[in-house]
Design a protein that fits this description.
341 residues; alpha+beta; five-stranded mixed beta sheet; four-stranded antiparallel beta sheet; 40% helix; 18% strand; globular
């Protein structure tokens, strides 16, 4: 399959930069014709999504939104439901999706005098049919269809053999199952994406139709790892107001109170090992956070005038040696750790 950037359908946002694109309908049609598993052939044809959950999702969403206090149930419903046109449009407009915010960050880094960096990044907005495909249970799709999707992902993202990537959906990285987020098997990346999105749906985070492939930043500090291979690097969560270009506060991403509470409560043997690893590394994380706090504040202040977003956000910054990388952004109202400001 050959990647040819095209103008997206009228119900899609315009392409925002050279690293974001939308597969053509012709390419999608050719792909859909090759699916073999009955569940896939029944549910996916160009322009068509079959209902499998047996109820009116749009009505259920409207009913929950009409009753305050149902946010958790609504999030769960949105995450696990089959896609409808309305649900697809809602997910496309999700401000927390990297597909939507990354161009603004990229622009700010390019236009500002800053040491901040960003990993090389490509983002794809899946058409509704393929967005539905990654919502199918991994175990229920045939190996032939998985391999077909693998080839699609490999070709469309122009991946390279023998290269390691960091991957995520538009809003969910599965960093707590880091073996899925760090992909060293690019020809199987489609399966990685399906597993990640299945897990996101289970935890109420399946509210995106975007996929992201990023440069994997190798750890140059030889930090210990937790969560199945994730280097425990010093990270900062910076809360900002983009309307006033103001830094509201900075907290450690791996905050001692939060980490000790979460890891100590873990029942799995691997989580208990992660708890001991964190305790042994806590002083280094704390010392480096304090040492680089002013620098991070100054660098974020430098990009805020060029960050063309409206409202308040959290911006995550990762330290790797002497380098600082902007790695994530989300609405402050939907971000963790605000209680620590």
């Amino acid at each position: 399959m050959e990647h040819t950037p095209v103008t997206p359908p009228s119900n899609q946002p315009a392409l925002v930069n050279d690293n974001a694109y939308y597969p053509s309908k012709e390419l999608l049609s050719n792909l859909a014709k090759q699916f073999q598993a009955p569940i896939t052939r029944r549910a996916i044809r160009p322009g068509y999504i079959a209902r499998t959950d047996g109820f009116d999702v749009n009505k259920a969403v409207a009913d929950l939104e009409a009753h305050p206090g149902q946010e958790a149930l609504l999030s769960r419903l949105l995450s696990v439901s089959d896609l409808t046109d309305k649900l697809y449009d809602r997910f496309s407009q999700n401000p927390n999706s990297l597909y939507n915010w990354y161009p603004a960050v990229q622009h700010a880094l390019q236009k500002s005098s800053t040491e901040l960096k960003s990993p090389d990044t490509k983002a794809m907005r899946l058409p509704i049919e393929l967005a539905q495909f990654i919502r199918f249970e991994y175990q229920e799709t045939s190996q032939a269809d998985k391999e077909l999707f693998n080839r699609f992902i490999f070709d469309q993202f122009e991946l390279e053999d023998d290269k390691t990537y960091f991957i995520k959906t538009g809003t969910f990285s599965s960093k707590f199952q880091f073996a899925n987020a760090k992909c060293s098997e690019p020809r199987e990346m489609g399966e990685y994406f399906q597993v990640i999105n299945n897990f996101a749906m289970e935890v109420g985070a399946g509210k995106t139709v975007d996929l992201v492939v990023r440069e994997y930043i190798e750890d140059v500090e030889d930090n210990p790892t937790i969560y199945n291979g994730m280097p425990l690097r010093t990270e900062f969560r910076v809360f900002v107001n983009c309307d006033t270009d103001e830094v509201l506060g900075v907290v450690p991403y791996w905050h001692p109170i939060v980490m000790k509470r979460a890891l100590k409560a873990g029942l799995a043997e691997s989580i208990q090992a992660d708890y001991l690893t964190y305790l042994a590394h806590e002083d280094k994380l704390t010392d480096e956070f304090n040492e680089h706090l002013s620098r991070v504040r100054n660098e974020i202040n430098a990009i805020l005038p060029n960050l063309n977003l409206s409202g308040s956000y959290s911006i995550d910054v990762m330290k790797n040696g002497d380098d600082l990388y902007v790695i994530d952004l989300a609405l402050m109202s939907e971000s963790a750790l605000t209680e620590l400001l």
